[in-house]
Amino acid sequence: MSRRALVNALLVLAVIALFAVPLLLDGGASEYAGTDAAVTEQLEADGYTPWFESIVDPAGEIESGLFALQAAVGGGVLGYVIGRLHGRRKHAPAEPERP
Amino acid sequence: MHIAEGFLPASHAVGWTVAAAPFVVHGARAVVTEVREHPESTLLLGAAGAFTFVLSAIKLPSVTGSSSHPTGTGVGAILFRPPVMALLGTVVLLFQALLLAHGGLTTLGANAFAFAVVGPWAGYGAYRLTRAAGAGLLPAVFAGVALADLATYVTTSVQLALAFPDASTGFAGALAKFLGVFALTQIPLAIGEGLLGVLLFRVLTTNARPELERLGVLKPAGNAA
User: Fold this and answer.
1) How far apart are alpha carbons B98 and B106 in whole angstroms?
2) How many structural domains does chain A have?
């Protein structure tokens, strides 16, 4: 494994650890409610009534599916771009390699 | 950072929309100009949009016991300067407001101002300052991407505190309250996003060197900047 690939792998591991470690240490004590929803609930508890409703309000399962779709589209496009750039470099005619 | 539909008083909703609109229009022009003058940028523009699309869809746990999502706007701001992200970020917010009931149309202006204007500009500023201070590309990318994330949530807290000042402690008290919810939770997420930004730029410096040189991110024919 090249040094470059090793550092990249370590970066991925660091990101995973950054989110996995709090989850593991917590031991299921927190509910991990979203901060957006927490603020909304607090404002409603203080007596605020929203004056406009969402036009489309998908049910929970559908909503999580749509979020997954959003992530999938983003991940797909990102992968496509990196793949194309990578392929271009691999097949580039005698472009000077990085030292 | 999404202020939910109908949760800003009408005057604030209109005010933030008016404030964000010129940035978004200017951003749309910046995207059109970039694609017309540099068609070879389209791939990287797609990558910048895709990065914010995927990151803003993923809710991550934080040490505070809450969850939140990163923004992903810093990468595009560093690559193409912030105006481009004013458009791309607003497109993401519109998608979420229309299809996911996340954010809203009445709060689109405020959310766009935080997510697509302040975040990218703050991140770009941090990136430029870090580089001007003599740091290399990757530390500056980390600072820029992380700060774009954090600044977005700070802006949302300010917007909410302006709309809902505390009965006794006023704006400052409300700001402290909203920052306590948003900014604290966001710190580990901003760090994680910064690391992902570094990872992406490491991949790009290997595979997209000509584009990065043209965009001024890397010095032409230099070693790793």
Assistant:
1) 11
2) 2
ipTM higher than the 0.95 cut: no
* Cross-chain residue pair B100–A46, CB shorter than 8 Å: no
From chain A, pick out residues whose CB is under 8 angstroms from the CB of B57: 67-68, 70-71, 74
Domains, chain B: 10-214 (1.10.1760.20)
pLDDT tens, position by position, for chain B (225 residues)? 999 999 999 999 999 999 999 999 999 999 999 999 999 999 999 999 999 999 999 999 998 889 999 999 999 999 999 999 999 999 999 999 999 999 999 999 999 999 999 999 999 999 999 999 999 999 999 999 999 999 999 999 999 999 999 999 999 999 999 999 999 999 999 999 999 999 999 999 999 999 999 999 998 865 544
Q: Who's near B90: CB < 8 A, 6+ residues apart?
A: B20, B24, B27, B108, B112, B115, B116
What is the reported pTM? 0.93
Q: In terms of residue numbers, what domain contains A80?
A: 58-94
Q: Tell me which chain B residues have a C-beta less than 8 angstroms from the C-beta of A98.
A: 206, 209, 224
* Best residue in A10, A36, A53 for a mutation probing chain B (most B CBs within 10 Å): A36
Asked if A32 lies within 8 A of B55 by C-beta distance, the reply is no
Q: How many CB atoms lie within 10 A of CB A22?
A: 18
Same domain, A33 and A62: no
